[in-house]
Amino acid sequence: MAQSKVVLLLLLAGFLSAVSCDSNRVYDTYKSIPNKWHKDSVVSFNISPPDSTNAYNLFVNLRNTNDYRFNNLFLIVEMQFPHGKTIKDTLEYRMADPTGKLLGTGYTDVKENKLWYKEGVIFNESGTYTVNIQHAMRENGKANGVVELTGVTDVGFRIENKTNNN
């Protein structure tokens, strides 16, 4: 019985230290991509911003495996504001170095990438914001997009407090 309490306390301490190390995090959610990411599949996040006075940095988070076969990634990210305004961006990110080695963090074949989306955003409208993320990959020399993108396992969205260090 005493041993199980020690194990429980160690697990709790580990969890608390992991959470407390990420003090800039305001919102951080992932959604799984089943098998392949279809070009028409939109990953959506509904966000209720914490306040309307502070500035925040926004990120797209992505987990991918070695099955991801491109050096870059094109995303269409759309932010819908509560009162009807919409901002749509087409973004490109490097996903591999010149040798083809995937970028990102992680010790297994799953790499995690924290990709800049917007800096210093102030959520000055009250209500729910919706962020929609869709891939826009194309193969070189081909007009039609990649229908099913392999190797992406999760897509996430993250909001951090903007600090003087960022």
Automatic annotation (TrEMBL):
Q: Does the keyword Flavoprotein apply?
A: no
Q: Which UniProt keywords apply?
A: Lipoprotein, Signal
What the entry lists under InterPro entries is as follows:
Motility-assoc_lipoprot_GldH (IPR020018)
Q: Does the keyword Signal apply?
A: yes
Q: What superkingdom heads the lineage? A: Bacteria
What PROSITE patterns does this protein's entry cite?
PROKAR_LIPOPROTEIN
Q: Show the Pfam families listed in the entry.
A: GldH_lipo (PF14109)
Q: Where is the signal peptide?
A: 1-18
Q: What is this protein called?
A: Gliding motility lipoprotein GldH
